[in-house]
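Q: what does this look like with zinc ion bound?
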Amino acid sequence: MLVESELDKFWNKRIETMPREEIEELQLKKIKAELNYAYHNTPFYKKSFKEAGVTPEDIKTVNDFDTKVPILYKDDLRAERSRTGDPFGGLLSVPLNERVKVINASTGTTGVPSVFAYTNDDWLTAAEQETRLKWMRGWRPKDLVFATGIRWHGYVVISSTGLDIVNITGISECMYPLPHIAKRHVIEMKYMKPQIFAGPMLTMSAIFEAAKKMGEDIKKLFSSVRLIDTGYGEIVTKTVKRRIEAETGVPPERIFDFGGVADPLWYFGDCEEHAGNHQCDDLFYTRAFDLETHEPLASGERGEIVVTNLFAEATPMLKWGTEDTGSVFSEKCGCGRTHTRSTILGREAFAANIKGMRVFPADIENILGDIPGFTEWFTMLKYSKGPMDTLKLKMATDRDKVKDPEEYKRQVKRKLKEKLDVDSEVEIVESVSDLPFVGHKVVKLFDMTKQA
Ligand SMILES: [Zn+2]
């Protein structure tokens, strides 16, 4: 009952705190069922399984699934679309006019559009995931949420269903960080006094800017806000949280990360422990794979995040390669939840390869963020095309807080060694303008091999 759940910290306690062995048993059962379903109902998987020399009967364990079934990439579907003219790329496994409730078509590409479909049950299951994750981040009945960016992709249906289930009122607004829209946001925030703010960082920055121009006190504007939900594809580092706190007065422990990959309907978020993003293992099987060999990795190891939707009816997604690097870990969280968590660091192209270890800008912000004087103004240098021996960093610091630059450098090197086991060389520049820029952003990985 809703009244009892209000006092509870879990939306679905039985599932969210299930012992690991039971989760893994359930996953294997669902993997096999989804695999059989996909193979027998879609031209795409019949073909890709045949090419990989595998049949559903060969998959008896999770390890079989990890090692024998190929990772599915957007490019594979693109090729299939161009070959057959089928916008679903051979993935559609139900009659379009009878069972499909929602179609997501991605925009901005030329040629055959990229289209995914969802049945009513697909949406309802995704709404369970949404509700669980919203509840976990502290969303409660009767809250008023100011949501920018919820009208994004097909996510709107899942999100509104989730809001309805929990009984939350939403003020839905446009996410585009344009000045006239941001001005509207400011006025709405001022008079509606929401308890939750949900929106991407870019939109928030536009609101800060608009509020300053309008002479509105940002902290007052956010004074009713209990929780901030941000991320939406960007990495919410400690530095980002601190910047939001400085503007809004909302402390980092009440700023939450939320994101996902729209096509397989996979979403994740952090809990009050802020120790990686929770995901729903009964609905998705998530694992990191080695970037080069495509071998499955152990808990906590870094590689490409690969996601399998365990319930999809309309367009099954087996081993969807997200092209994002990160890690998946299975240790129980301090909040009591037993499902795996993941940390996403970004695209591999934005990382420095130090002896095979990928170091991301988000790593630098998270690991060094606590050192007094640290700023987000830094550049990692890519001085060789292959793996490098040491991480070369150029950094600008907050000079008022760094009394002894040599000691600061020692601290940076020590932390990087301790957390990533990476050797580094650190140079502190005179001013921010000594760093390479693109527009008004510092280049986080500067490719010296491309310079003349
Ligand atoms: Zn947790």
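Residues 124 and 158 are 8 Å apart (CA to CA). Residues 271, 273, 278, 333, 335, 337 surround zinc ion (CB under 6 Å).
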